[in-house]
Design a protein that fits this description.
The protein is of the alpha/beta class. It is about 45% helix and about 20% strand. It is elongated and about 60 Å long.
Length: about 325
């Protein structure tokens, strides 16, 4: 009798572990492609035939490279085929590549839009083709097309940068902003930052802002112009770490030693910069592309196998600066 009880308990434990990557109480069977019973009966055979697409903003960005590696590992372990296309920050190219993936017969796509508004026709095409849409990192404007969203709390990421600046510069000062209006994740970060500094006792003034399209080269060019026009700025808020690296380069060239630079991501490049005694980087609001990629892949599997899933997942963000960078390591992502 005892052996029988132990055996039953072991089976129950295995079943629980088998669905640990999926969330409860949010997605419903109606949201999913197949019922749980259908998924259990045909999972092994159907997974081998299913193709998962992957399209994010720019695969030159180390953040997205890490996210892709994490998602690919989980997807392939579960028996799916994985294909990735790189639009290289070109929204037109992303639309072409998505249509090509539809033509190849993808069942689902993990997607971060180059332009959160221009992606809408592609979302319509995906929906018409019966492709499940897992939106990561940067939201699309028309969220009704999306089956699930996985991202960081981008508003909080910008807000904690603003709070840190208030603490470092209690007298206020002039600020420059390097942004990217086509990416909603960056929009939310900048909004959070501006709302935080608006609460400062002594005022901050945003004297310059520029669209960098999220790229290092544009960030370098725009920050050089800003520093020439406003040599007395106290800080540059950057929409991501890649932009922050460009701003840091221009600040070093200009020898503007008093300028503080903020980024968002927690990239290895920025963490290495924080180790330098004379760095201009004040901090980076860190997120984890590893967790995001893994979660996106797990939720993709839940959707395709008819399991319940979380329709919105927000990863925690936190500040990394000179005081705590050693805790997170500099050779990889946290």
């Amino acid at each position: 009798m005892k052996k029988r009880v132990i055996t039953v308990m072991a089976v129950v434990l295995i079943c629980i572990l088998g669905i640990s990557g999926c969330k409860k109480h949010v997605g419903t069977p109606e949201d999913n492609a197949a019922s749980g019973e259908e998924a259990e009966d045909g999972k092994a055979d159907s997974q081998e035939k299913k193709l998962i697409g992957f399209s994010v903003i720019d695969m030159k960005n180390p953040y997205f490279i890490t996210l892709e590696n994490a998602a690919r590992e989980v997807i392939e372990k579960k028996g799916y085929e994985f294909i990735m296309e790189d639009p290289g920050t070109d929204s037109t190219q992303q639309a072409v590549q998505i249509q090509e993936m539809i033509d190849k017969g993808i069942s689902a796509i993990i997607l971060s839009p180059v332009d959160w508004e221009k992606i809408t026709p592609s979302l319509q095409a995906l929906k018409e083709a019966g492709v499940r849409i897992i939106n990561v990192d940067t939201q699309v404007r028309e969220m009704d097309y999306v089956d699930a969203y996985i991202g960081s709390d981008n508003y909080s990421a910008g807000y904690i940068c603003g709070e840190d600046l208030i603490e470092r510069c209690p007298e206020g000062g002039k600020i420059a902003i390097l942004e990217c209006p086509t990416q909603n994740s960056i929009n939310d970060r900048i909004t959070g930052f501006e709302e935080a500094i608006s609460k400062a006792t002594k005022g901050f003034e945003v004297v310059a802002r520029a669209d960098t399209t999220g790229e290092f080269e544009r960030a370098l060019e725009e920050s050089e112009k800003m520093l020439k026009e406003y040599p007395d700025i106290v800080a540059i808020m950057c929409g991501n770490d890649q932009i922050a690296v460009g701003a840091t380069t221009s600040v070093n060239v200009a020898r503007a030693k008093e300028v503080l630079i903020y980024g968002v991501d927690g990239s290895p490049d920025i963490k290495k910069e924080l180790q330098k005694p004379d760095t201009q980087i004040a901090g980076t609001a860190a997120q984890s592309p590893i967790h995001m990629g893994q979660n996106a892949a797990e939720i993709t599997d839940c959707i395709l196998t008819g399991q319940k899933f979380e329709k919105e997942t927000y990863e925690e963000v936190f500040m990394i600066n000179k005081d705590n960078v050693a805790m997170y390591g500099v050779d990889g992502w946290q």
